[in-house]
């Protein structure tokens, strides 16, 4: 599975008022099937050598949850500064209009679906490159002898050290084929990582990962084969009847006991509506009520430019109040929360200021 080149130039509507609701909810009442970059903040520092749960610019999380921040990721790319909750509104509006001008290639003050498609693919490329740079740093951290190949044993040592084990003790026990005493949860993670490691190991398998293979191990979106493996894992987790495909009820079903109060119930209802819409309008491409692994793989592929065009059209439809199939400055400012995660006030007046 060769590493995939970054694209040169990928969205379905999501009700972002849910974000405010999430913040008001007690953590214990939050449905397990919701996932946001804000919720995930801070996890990567502690487990940098672990594959991330969240993949920027990919529509589903590793566990099959919808990526709530997808639209913002493919509209802003890495350039999220200036849209924080405490950012000065006028500066945020100005920056949003600068982005508008960059998307509006022909300068007619309207964004077409083709212009948005080009921008989505370009921003996805930024996330791809960021993943490449992060993977390089992590690869060198787990390649102590610097030979450009990492064995499963070398990686296993680093992983267990990150869990608080003694590097010297772990190394010695692995070298002597002695049993390692780890808790049940850590053992389960190790087994899943080992399966993933072997999947990333290009044939002929040697249990050694090169830098490109390690990138695929951490970021399956960079390899068609690893993306397929990720799809298989998601289908396995959601598939209830064992037919290796997903029906609508399977895709929108909730784990037992995820709703504990009315806020949680409201969140669930909205989340189910989102997943139903995603299933029926985007994932189930032949509209037969069943999602195959092939359909899910195409849907999740961030390099699929046809998907990027569909997402561009969906994005425009969300804010296109005058129904002209284009986005205009006033519309982008009014729907700023959808595009940036920040609600910018006085949009109608400020559009004239920024232009």
Order of helices and strands: HEHHEHHHEHHHEHHEHHEHHHHH
Sheet with the most strands, sense and barrel status: 2 strands, parallel
- Helix fraction, binned, reads 55-70%
Alpha carbon gap, first and last residue: 48 Å
Number of helices: 18
Q: What does this entry look like structurally?
A:
With 355 residues, the chain is mostly helical. The protein has 18 helices and six strands. Helix 9 (184-200) packs across helix 10 (211-218). The longest helix is centred in the middle third of the chain and has 30 residues, at 113-142. The relative contact order is 0.18. Residues 6-35 and 37-46 have low confidence and may be disordered. This is 45 kDa calcium-binding protein. Residues 30-53 are annotated as: Disordered. Keywords: Calcium, Glycoprotein, Golgi apparatus, Metal-binding, Repeat, Signal.
Salient structural properties:
18 helices; two-stranded parallel sheet; about 5% strand; EF_Hand_1_Ca_BS; two-stranded antiparallel ribbon; 6 strands; signal; mainly alpha; single chain; calcium; globular
Explain the layout of strands and helices.
Blueprint: H1 17-24, E1 34-35, H2 37-40, H3 43-46, E2 66-67, H4 70-76, H5 89-103, H6 113-142, E3 150-151, H7 152-162, H8 167-175, H9 184-200, E4 208-209, H10 211-218, H11 224-238, E5 246-247, H12 248-252, H13 262-283, E6 290-291, H14 293-300, H15 305-319, H16 329-334, H17 336-340, H18 347-354
């Amino acid at each position: 599975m060769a590493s995939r080149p970054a694209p040169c130039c990928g969205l379905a509507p999501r009700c972002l008022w849910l974000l405010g609701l999430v913040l008001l909810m007690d953590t214990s009442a939050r449905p397990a099937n919701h996932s946001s970059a804000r919720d995930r903040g801070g996890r990567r520092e502690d487990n940098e050598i672990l594959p991330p749960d969240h993949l920027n610019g990919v529509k589903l999380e590793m566990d099959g949850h919808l990526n709530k921040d997808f639209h913002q990721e493919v509209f802003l790319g890495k350039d999220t500064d200036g849209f924080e909750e405490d950012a000065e509104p006028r500066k945020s509006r100005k920056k949003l209009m600068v982005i508008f001008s960059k998307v509006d290639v022909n300068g007619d003050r309207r964004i077409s679906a083709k212009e948005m498609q080009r921008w989505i693919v370009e921003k996805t490329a930024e996330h791809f490159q960021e993943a490449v740079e992060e993977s390089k740093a992590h690869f060198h951290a787990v390649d102590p002898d610097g030979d450009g190949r990492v064995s499963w044993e070398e990686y296993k040592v680093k992983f267990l050290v990150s869990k608080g084990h003694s590097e010297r003790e772990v190394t010695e026990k692995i070298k002597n084929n002695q049993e390692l005493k780890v808790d049940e949860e850590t053992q389960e993670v190790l087994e899943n990582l080992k399966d993933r490691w072997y999947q990333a190991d290009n044939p002929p398998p040697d249990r050694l990962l090169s830098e490109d293979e390690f990138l695929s191990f951490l970021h399956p979106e960079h390899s068609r084969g690893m993306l397929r493996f990720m799809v298989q894992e998601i289908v396995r987790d959601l598939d209830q009847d064992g037919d290796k495909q997903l029906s609508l009820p399977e895709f929108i079903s909730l784990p037992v006991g995820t709703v504990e109060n009315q806020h949680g119930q409201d969140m669930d209802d909205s989340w189910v509506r989102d997943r139903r819409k995603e299933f029926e309008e985007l994932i189930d491409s032949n509209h037969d009520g069943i999602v195959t692994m092939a359909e899910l793989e195409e849907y999740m592929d961030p390099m699929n430019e046809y998907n990027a065009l569909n997402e561009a059209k969906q994005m425009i439809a969300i804010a296109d109040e005058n129904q002209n199939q284009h986005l205009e400055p006033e519309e982008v400012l009014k729907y700023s929360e959808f595009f940036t995660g920040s609600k910018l006030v006085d949009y109608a007046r400020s559009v004239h200021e920024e232009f």
